[in-house]
Amino acid sequence: MNLLILSLWLVLPDSSCVVCHSDLAGAYRESIHTRAAIGCTTCHGGVAGPLEENLAHRGLRKGSLDRLQVPRLCGGCHSDAEKMRPFGLPLDAFAYYQTSAHGRAWKRGQRDAAVCTDCHGVHEILSVRDPRSPVSRAHLVETCASCHADTARMKAFHLDPHIPQRYRESVHFRAASAGNTHAPVCTDCHGSHGAAPPGVRDVEQVCGRCHTREATAFDESPHKTAYIREGLAPCTSCHGEHDVQPLTLERLQETCTDCHDENDRGGRRAKELWSMFYETLARLRKAETLIQTMQDRGYPVEDLKGTLQDAREAWMVALPLVHTLNTDTLALALGQVRGRADDVQGELHERANRKKEGRVLLLVLWFYVLLTIGVIEARLRAEHPQREQML
Ligand code: HEC
Ligand code: HEC
Ligand code: HEC
Ligand code: HEC
Ligand code: HEC
Ligand code: HEC
Ligand code: HEC
Ligand code: HEC
Ligand code: HEC
Q1: What is the DSSP string of 254-276?
Q2: pLDDT for res 6
Q3: How far is the CA of 260 from the centre of ligand 9 (A)?
Q4: Using CA positions, which residue lies closest to atom 24 of ligand 4?
Q5: Which residues, including other chains, have CB under 8 Å from residue 18's CB and lie 6 or more apart?
Q6: CA 214 / ligand 7 centre spacing (Å)
Q7: What is the CATH number of domain 267-390?
Q8: How many angstroms does the Cα of residue 242 sit away from the middle of ligand 6?
């Protein structure tokens, strides 16, 4: 007998089962359940100890672990306050699950909807904070995609199987996979056990939880009431749900003309907003280039980099205000950017001029020095005309 299994047998519950079910030995050792003394018999029944199949399998709940039984098996224990208290685990997983699209489908007897084990694993159940867990940030998208990118499975439910792929092309996924823990994965927008699509009315809350400045600006805009009236989704109607990309200035007007005519009030406003942004950005870029050129030519510019940084920060503050659709609000904020950019430009011009003046002064100085030397020389010669002969 394997030494590992022998040692497990001595210290852990039900390890006798693993003698025959040795393919589960690794999972048994790693699972958070084993450490909480939840062994094979807790879920399967049977008798721990005997190494004879018939004896060990006495009372085994044969076939009772059909996937449709899983939510009740796991959820039963996980909503039991007595059992969860020592571990400080929440009791709501099962209750939330039953309200989700997954749980509702399970109740209808749908075998294709997610049950607890589809997301958490069966035997090797790890803490959700363990990076190896299938629901950790590192693996979550694969876990959801295992069904949501499965064309046949999704087709039966009239769901789009391209959602995971679209999400993987988004700015959010790029940031999340680069290690930005503030960027959303599927469950940040859908919840983990309450996995449900946010309805039109909740979208703003979902996105606004992280993008507060944009949400506040949107609330001030005439779109707020218009969108409610028309049943349009606050953020996703312009940004999409899964394939969220950074919007560039070039696409600003296109975004608006999806709904507006170029010449209606919305379309005209789009043009105004665009040119305000464009003009300011041009000045900001000019200040950036100037600093670079002056630095390349050896001028001192370090102190001005702070002002440039202020300009960039003011730009970041101004950007979300596009959502107000208000030109006055935006003019005020962009004024701050232009102010700082103009400061940089003005100061650099002054320095260049000062340097030019300096050069002229130096030239004049040299001229006088040479002139004085010439004059002295001439005088000396006049005073001692026979100097050479005397020597
Ligand atoms: C002596 C070896 C042996 C021991 C000990 C043993 N099993 Fe098994 N077990 C088997 C074999 C062989 C099968 C496959 C038989 C089959 O497919 O019907 C099996 C099948 C199972 C199954 C699948 C049953 C099904 O309906 O598909 C479960 C669950 C199971 N064992 C649980 C346990 C548990 C729990 C223990 C410890 C209390 C245990 N076994 C101890 C040999 C063993
Ligand atoms: C937390 C509950 C739980 C514990 C503890 C547990 N199992 Fe299971 N087991 C399940 C569930 C649920 C399934 C059904 C898996 C599925 O639907 O794919 C299952 C399936 C099985 C099967 C048949 C399918 C397969 O994977 O081959 C065997 C055999 C089995 N378990 C053995 C064991 C043994 C041995 C242990 C102890 C090391 C154990 N289980 C501990 C919940 C548990
Ligand atoms: C669609 C996938 C999915 C399903 C189905 C699912 N879970 Fe979870 N579960 C998660 C995710 C994701 C987390 C991690 C939440 C986090 O990071 O805070 C989690 C966390 C947990 C936790 C840790 C404590 C907590 O609530 O954060 C427990 C316990 C848990 N789930 C039990 C269950 C049980 C029991 C079921 C079945 C009734 C179930 N889960 C079904 C995805 C799922
Ligand atoms: C007999 C009660 C019981 C059953 C049945 C049970 N669990 Fe657990 N589960 C626990 C306990 C107790 C812990 C806490 C272990 C610890 O923290 O050391 C736990 C921990 C977990 C965790 C880790 C939570 C965390 O800290 O991140 C997950 C996930 C989990 N269980 C999912 C499941 C799933 C899925 C099933 C069904 C296959 C299941 N549990 C069945 C009692 C149970
Ligand atoms: C085992 C397969 C499976 C896994 C894994 C799975 N899902 Fe699902 N999911 C489904 C199925 C099937 C439906 C359709 C249920 C229905 O409409 O009745 C669904 C429905 C949904 C819905 C509701 C869609 C709608 O409009 O009805 C959302 C949102 C969702 N899943 C998100 C997730 C997320 C997030 C994850 C990962 C944490 C995940 N799912 C993991 C199979 C799965
Ligand atoms: C940034 C937030 C966000 C992220 C991240 C996100 N979703 Fe969504 N998702 C949404 C919103 C908002 C909707 C609502 C669409 C609606 O109501 O029309 C939605 C809708 C859905 C739907 C239902 C589509 C339908 O046709 O009814 C599914 C399924 C879904 N998402 C799955 C996922 C999966 C799987 C992931 C991860 C790969 C994911 N989502 C990541 C915000 C998000
Ligand atoms: C009417 C269309 C529209 C709606 C509705 C909309 N946005 Fe935007 N959003 C834009 C445009 C256009 C830009 C690009 C501004 C630029 O780059 O000049 C933008 C830029 C952004 C940016 C990146 C720039 C920044 O602010 O830092 C974020 C984040 C953002 N929006 C989030 C949201 C959120 C959250 C909501 C919902 C509260 C929302 N948007 C609603 C059109 C919209
Ligand atoms: C959990 C927090 C979170 C949620 C929820 C969230 N986002 Fe984001 N979002 C981020 C982070 C972080 C970034 C920055 C990624 C980067 O560029 O590094 C980002 C980037 C963006 C950008 C691009 C900004 C840029 O700089 O150009 C847009 C647009 C955006 N999100 C829109 C949305 C929309 C629409 C929703 C709702 C459907 C949403 N976000 C939900 C955190 C979130
Ligand atoms: C998803 C559709 C949609 C998009 C995209 C959209 N709008 Fe609108 N907008 C509306 C609706 C609906 C109204 C209300 C129209 C009404 O009351 O007649 C509105 C109203 C307005 C108004 C107020 C008009 C008035 O008569 O007072 C302005 C200004 C406006 N939008 C500007 C914009 C700008 C700028 C953009 C791009 C950044 C944009 N809209 C993108 C749907 C949209």
Answers
A1: HHHHTTS-TTSHHHHHHHHHHHH
A2: 58
A3: 7
A4: 127
A5: 5, 8, 9, 24, 25, 28, 40
A6: 6
A7: 1.20.140
A8: 6
Which ligand minimizes its atom distance to the CA of 114? 5
CA-angle at 141, arms to 135 and 144, nearest 5°: 80
* Residue 2: per-residue pLDDT: 61
- Nearest protein Cα to ligand 4, atom 10: 33
Tens of pLDDT, residue by residue over 7-22, are 655 556 688 899 999 9
Ligand nearest to the CA of 135: 3
Q: Which amino acid is at 300?
A: P
Binding site membership of 238 for ligand 6 (Cβ less than 6 Å): no
By residue count, the chain amounts to: 391
| 199-221 pLDDT per residue, tens | 667 888 899 999 999 999 999 99
Please state, rounded to an integer, the average pLDDT across all residues of the chain: 90
What does pTM read for this prediction?
A: 0.91
Tokens of 34: 């084993």
Q: What is the domain partition of the chain in residue ranges?
A: 1-65, 267-390
Measured CA to CA, the distance from residue 166 to residue 243 in angstroms comes to 5
- Side chain identity at 127, as an amino acid letter? S
Task: Kindly report which listed range (4-8, 114-118, 353-357) carries the lowest average pLDDT score.
Answer: 4-8
